[in-house]
Design brief:
Layout (H helix, E strand, L loop, with lengths): L40 E36 L6 E3 L2 E11 L3 E37 L4 E4 L3 E2 L19
Antiparallel strand pairs: 1-4, 2-3, 3-4, 4-5, 4-6
């Protein structure tokens, strides 16, 4: 406040007259500040799914067996059990023959040898990748800036067969 108060106090000079006091108020202004939130803009993020086809090479394990019939023609008292000899599974084949007495004759054995081979098959699979687009919005929701679409780095994952194809995080 730049106003000046010019007041003169006069003294009458008479010692019997009571002295008069003038009161001059001293005023000071104070500033009170406050803040409030004002929406000046916002951001919109959109994700887009891109689909691409890749060819992959997978090793497939295949087992083949060779069956070799070995004639034995030996009489046995009981049916021999199935047994192993290294990679070979031996399955006894018996038959009953009617003779004067009934007896068990081992007719042959099946010697089964397992062979493993690995072959490569090419197959096309569909892979998905996400792309994020960021848009800055003003207070009224209008787009004021947009970032260029940046591809997200692909993350190596194992595709689970339980999720339907074509669905990425939705």
């Amino acid at each position: 406040m730049n106003d000046t108060l010019d007041e003169t106090i006069e003294d009458s000079g008479d010692p019997n007259e009571p002295r008069r006091e003038n009161i001059i108020p001293v005023i000071e202004e104070e500033l009170v500040t406050d803040t409030r939130a004002v929406k000046t803009g916002s951001v919109r993020v959109q994700k887009h799914v891109e689909t691409r086809v890749r060819e992959i090479d997978l090793p497939l394990l295949r087992e083949n067996v060779d069956v070799k019939r070995v004639p034995i023609n030996r009489v046995v008292d009981a049916e021999p059990p199935v047994r192993r000899s290294g990679d070979t599974v031996i399955v006894p084949v018996v038959e009953e023959e009617l003779v004067i007495t009934k007896r068990l004759v081992l007719k042959e054995e099946l010697h089964i040898v397992k062979h493993r081979t690995t072959e490569h098959k090419k197959k096309e699979v569909t892979l998905e990748r996400e792309r994020a687009e960021v848009q800055r919005l003003d207070a009224h929701g209008r787009v004021i800036a947009s970032s260029p679409s940046e591809r997200m780095r692909p993350v190596k994952t194992t595709r689970r067969p339980t999720r339907p194809p074509g669905v990425l995080g939705r």
